[in-house]
Design a protein that fits this description.
two-stranded antiparallel ribbon, binds zinc ion, mainly beta, elongated, 93 residues
Length: 93
């Protein structure tokens, strides 16, 4: 082959996309301070999944406050997030 072939190009369209996945486990941890008591709480999306997420659209992610014994304190709130997606060209190894 020739070296004159055009490069492979990946373009993000910016459009939102529904992910038809009931339980979408994702490699993210969201850590935020509880607005009621100030305790820092973590939601691990690799175990506490997203249901039918939409890529590229902001949504409210629910967080739950737990005490030092792991019991729910009854405090819940949301943070506004957006799930974005990247597609990366990887050279053959
Ligand atoms: Zn709290």
């Amino acid at each position: 082959m020739t070296s004159q072939l055009p490069p492979t190009i990946i373009t993000h369209t910016g459009r939102s996309v529904d992910l038809p996945v009931k339980r979408f486990y994702a490699p993210f941890e969201v850590s935020a301070a509880c607005p009621d008591c100030g305790r820092v709480c973590v939601r691990d999306l690799s175990t506490n999944y997203l249901g039918y997420p939409v890529v590229g659209e902001p949504f409210d992610l629910r967080l739950t406050c737990f005490d030092d014994e792991g019991e729910e304190t009854g405090h819940e709130w949301s943070v506004r997030v957006r799930l974005d997606m990247t597609l990366t060209l990887v050279e053959a190894g």
